[in-house]
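FAQ: What does a ligand-bound record look like?

Like this one, built around inosinic acid:
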Amino acid sequence: MNKRMVVLGSQWGDEGKGKLVDLIANKVKYVVRFQGGHNAGHTLVIRGDKTVLHLIPSGILHDQVMAILAPGMVISPSALVKELDQLKQKGFEVENKLLISDQATLLLPYHVALDKAREKEKASQKIGTTQRGIGPAYEDKIARRGFKFGAVLYNQDIETDLKEVLDYHNFVLQNYYQAPAVSFDEIKQELDLIRNRLHSKITDTTSLLHQAIEENAAILFEGAQGTLLDIDHGTYPFVTSSHTIAGGVAVSCGISPNAIGEIIAVTKAYSTRVGSGPFPTELIDETGQFIQKQGNEFGATTGRPRRCGWFDMVMAKYSAKVNGFTGIALTKLDVLDGLPEIKICVAYQYKGEKRLTPPNHAVPLEQCEPIYETLPGWQQSTKGIVEWEQLPENAQKYIKRLETLVGVKIVLVSTGPDREDTLWLDKTICQM
Ligand code: IMP
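The answer part, i.e. the structure of the complex:
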């Protein structure tokens, strides 16, 4: 049991992080989103009602939770306000339960325009981004021409500074991409949303977290996207622009790596990927279509169909090493119900050689052929099962085999989208 826990995706995102965070946040004081922006789409199903969150941390629906958007995030004010309004319409009043770091970076309409223009220009070479402006917003931050939320409160000249940066981006948009310019009015609207609606939520979240750690408060750090989409440790360039791995928590939040205890890997019982990039176990056949249909594998943010494939143990072991996982939450087991056999990729064949670790570059990774171990499937439904003994024997064998091969304990198995569809194997690890 540990008072600080990270929950993140071990694959290419969409592993079901939202459900897990929501499930274990009932005794947590703070839930912190530490990277990315509204490219994420975390789906929660509570008593049959579906809610998709993009920026707001999934644990916010618990009464005692304060939700924090950390310094490492890129945040669109209009996307955030839209989400707050949608929650309000559903009867969730969370306005006073949200804090925004004054060091978080603004994501503005010119970032979205640049993301779209670039993807259009690259055509078949495109990354397949969510077109939310994430990459361009992080670029501006690193180039030191970004704007922090604190600047809106403290910088008297922010409008002049913003006009300068807007000119710069409009030059690129119009002259390089032949795309329409972004008007200052659009930027002004975002500023107004901060000044009129969000200003009271902007605060020094770093000091707040330091204090919370000193008081030994329970804090849950919620990852977005997945390990294999990390800017440095994913399948570059087909990645997102932030650090999605456990190490990213310390960097983004301004806390010590020593402050982090448990690191839980949310891991799908098979693999999916949205957008372009290498995917060694991809199934471009009827089984792939079966998994896509059964798993409703369509992006929560963009609605795009997700590419589907078998479980990739080479990637899972890599991910476990990069993050130092202390437990696995295995999700969407029920999607595999009815398959005659189930495969696990245990190694790659690359240029005639067997590899147990993935190559670090997209080009050789594209050339890797999976080497599979085949297990018998199960024909019974596992949907909603919450007791180990009730699982079909072949499902038990599959779970145990995954656990043995990764070498990390599976602490829970998710057997459906609802909070209740959860089979706990070790509850102690998630009791904060
Ligand atoms: P970006 O984050 O919008 O720049 O997109 C970069 C890559 O990350 C693309 O392949 C996206 O499909 C992928 N991506 C971004 N956010 C998510 C997510 O929440 N789930 C899964 N994939 C994502």
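Follow-up question: can I read anything off the structure? Yes, for example: The longest strand covers residues 341-350.
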